[in-house]
Amino acid sequence: xxxxxxxxxxxxxxxxxxxxxxxxxxxxxxxxxxxxxxxxxxxxxxxxxxxxxxxxxxxxxxxxxxxxxxxxxxxxxxxxxxxxxxxxxxxxxxxxxxxxxxxxxxxxxxxxxxxxxxxxxxxxxxxxxxxxxxxxxxxxxxxxxxxxxxxxxxxxxxxxxxxxxxxxxxxxxxxxxxxxxxxxxxxxxxxxxxxxxxxxxxxxxxxxxxxxxxxxxxxxxxxxxxxxxxxxxxxxxxxxxxxxxxx
Amino acid sequence: xxxxxxxxxxxxxxxxxxxxxxxxxxxxxxxxxxxxxxxxxxxxxxxxxxxxxxxxxxxxxxxxxxxxxxxxxxxxxxxxxxxxxxxxxxxxxxxxxxxxxxxxxxxxxxxxxxxxxxxxxxxxxxxxxxxxxxxxxxxxxxxxxxxxxxxxxxxxxxxxxxxxxxxxxxxxxxxxxxxxxxxxxxxxxxxxxxxxxxxxxxxxxxxxxxxxxxxxxxxxxxxxxxxxxxxxxxxxxxxxxxxxxxxxxxxxxxxxxxxxxxxxxxxxxxxxxxxxxxxxxxxxxxxxxxxxxxxxxxxxxxxxxxxxxxxxxxxxxxxxxxxxxxxxxxxxxxxxxxxxxxxxxxxxxxxxxxxxxxxxxxxxxxxxxxxxxxxxxxxxxxxxxxxxxxxxxxxxxxxxxxxxxxxx
Lengths: 247, 408
Known about the structure:
The complex is a heterodimer of chains A (247) and B (408).
Chain A: E1 8-17, E2 20-30, E3 35-39, H1 46-54, E4 61-66, E5 69-70, H2 76-81, E6 84-87, H3 99-106, H4 113-118, H5 123-135, H6 151-163, E7 169-173, H7 181-194, E8 199-203, H8 207-213, E9 216-221, E10 224-229, H9 231-236, H10 238-245
Helix pairs in contact in A: 3-6
Chain B: H1 2-7, H2 11-32, H3 35-60, H4 68-87, H5 103-107, H6 123-146, H7 152-172, H8 174-177, E1 188-189, E2 192-193, H9 197-223, H10 225-235, H11 237-241, H12 247-273, H13 283-296, H14 301-321, H15 323-340, H16 344-364
């Protein structure tokens, strides 16, 4: 199997901040239709890894290939346009706009200056927004100002803002932080549904939640991969227990 | 048709607001004021172009430019160069060492018209230059700043520095620019004497119509997806960037639009006032434009016009009796507006006046029972509450809220 058969192949990825290597010669391969969870103690480089993939941080060395396309040299918006979506750790939504407008802004049409000036709210946009809102459990809140949503609903909204772009790689940084038990269950269902036809990378600390959703788990520690495999395998790994799970 | 009604005119309330301002500027003021005072109002309205541009840049885009005077000045100087050349025909300048060139060049021992003055013999070129030169200059500044992600306070400081540099350049190059006196003694535009009362009336109306044109363009921009993106960018720039937008392009565009508006105002200033000088280019006029915008309400295109008129009326009234106090008063006014009325006059109107109006309006009409097929463009009630404090980091519009219909 060549590396290009993977949706995402990260090879020898290194980023160093003034000599400190936040991610150190990391290799990571994610398949199509796979839901990968990345776990690890604080400072392991999980968020930095997502930053590198989506272009927020530039790599010092190594390569990131998405569907065979090198991402490390692309501008952030070009990475998004090639099909990579990323949710930030703190829900990052437009608080002053309505839920509908939040989703509409994320709709992948009229992304240039003049395109956005000519953009019209056509029936297909409205339809798509409603379909996504349905999926993220916010169909009844379309007219609500997004800032008034609960923390969990904001998390869903941001996921929805990514889904509306139909990304092939979806990266979610702590999607269930601040959610109630019920909301967590719904989110687990949501993630299982949306990982069809795309790859999903999730960073999460809640081990019950990880167990429920993960196809495969990658454990990071000090910027390096400590272990990788099924949840059972990883949980049984003595090194993982020592640096992370044991606490 | 309905799209034009909604996006350009702002629907019913937007249309009413526009009609009131149009009535004031096109009918009431000309009827009440003599031509001297009306010409003064016309001068103020040229500043309003800059203020309207700042609503887009600063209010919506969060880009606080303290250099709009530069674009105002560039537009004004382009116009002045044409008028000066027309006023400097060989007959009227026969007593000069070199007849046929502007008088200030002759005074500075320049014996031939500089090459960059030559094209300004042509009116078509001049009108184009008024629009293009400031816009291209803004584009270059925007390209250099926004592609490097310079923003916020740094951008404000850099634009202010540019305003200072351009002023110093104009003052220093006396032989080419007229120096500190500027370009004066302008007489005719293509043979039409602009100093007569009838010309002043005509220029006043041309100016007013151009201003309404700019307001309509502003309306279109703010009600389009572009406008919502500007607001989104102001609050969550990274989220916009990681939704596939090149944030810098949007900022560059809106900055160019602001510059273009300012430049039109500058050219109309030259035509109405009859001269152009560095005192309309530098830091002070640039900051004054920001104050007009703040007083009017930085999210309100029409508010910017009211703000400009009110502050200038105050300036004229006060500076006639207490010239030294005026600057302090204006500074105090700016601080007071930012501290207590972050949305300016438009905010006061929305908060205290409009609720009563709409209450009456709804009593008369039966409320629409069936909701429209598509959700309304904006959640009907957007909280007008705004934290409003002016911390340094929040300066360029981090606190402003979306206003109801972006009208008034």
